[in-house]
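User: I've been trying to design a sequence by hand for this structure and keep getting stuck. Would you show me what you'd pick, starting by listing the structure so we're on the same page?

Assistant: Good idea, let's start from the same input. This is the structure you sent:
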């Protein structure tokens, strides 16, 4: 069964779906590892994501805060979400800006793409810097009902990242890359 894993020394002997839900699928593969040992490898299939560092004309960053079930707390992070099948990451970023914050970007600049958990999922997160913001309409889905919008002065956002107050991966990477992009 030839696949992308073989060229890196892995051989997949078979796969089973352990769980399939609306947002993720858990696979358990029977594999031969690069050093020749046979075993299993669990991995998760999730949609790629688009996350956005939105900076307004007053040099404030838009953060959303919502309940993060796995952490058991509310979490402050940059807006974003999953990219639909066949959807362009740039279009997803525009959609997510408006849905979660009620603001639309005139300008979107791709900052980077990264793998959030490469040992567990091949998903990629695309990070954007959004400027030239204008009013749109908030259209959160039911799972985002308790989400709130908070504008944070840019330097305070950078300080919150550096102190660990803001710890969500896309927010940390995005704010630090936006700092570099916006520094003359």
């Amino acid at each position: 069964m030839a696949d992308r894993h073989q060229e890196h020394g892995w051989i997949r002997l078979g796969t089973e779906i352990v769980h399939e839900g609306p947002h993720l699928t858990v696979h358990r593969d029977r594999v031969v590892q690069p050093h020749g040992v046979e075993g299993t490898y669990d991995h998760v299939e999730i949609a790629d994501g688009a996350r956005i560092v939105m900076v307004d004309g007053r040099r404030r960053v838009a953060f959303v805060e919502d309940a993060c079930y796995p952490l058991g707390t509310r979490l402050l992070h940059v807006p974003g979400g999953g990219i639909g099948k066949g959807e362009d990451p740039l279009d997803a970023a525009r959609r997510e800006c408006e849905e979660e914050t009620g603001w639309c970007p005139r300008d979107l600049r791709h900052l980077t793409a990264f793998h959030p958990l490469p040992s567990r999922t091949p998903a990629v997160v695309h990070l954007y810097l959004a400027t030239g913001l204008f009013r749109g309409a908030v259209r959160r889905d039911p799972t985002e009902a308790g989400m709130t919008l908070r504008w944070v002065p840019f330097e305070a956002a950078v300080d919150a990242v550096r102190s660990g107050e803001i710890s969500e991966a896309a927010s940390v990477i995005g704010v630090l890359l936006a700092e570099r992009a916006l520094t003359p």
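That's my pick for every position. To get oriented when you compare it with your attempt: Helices lie at 89-101, 154-163, 169-182. The longest strand covers residues 103-114.
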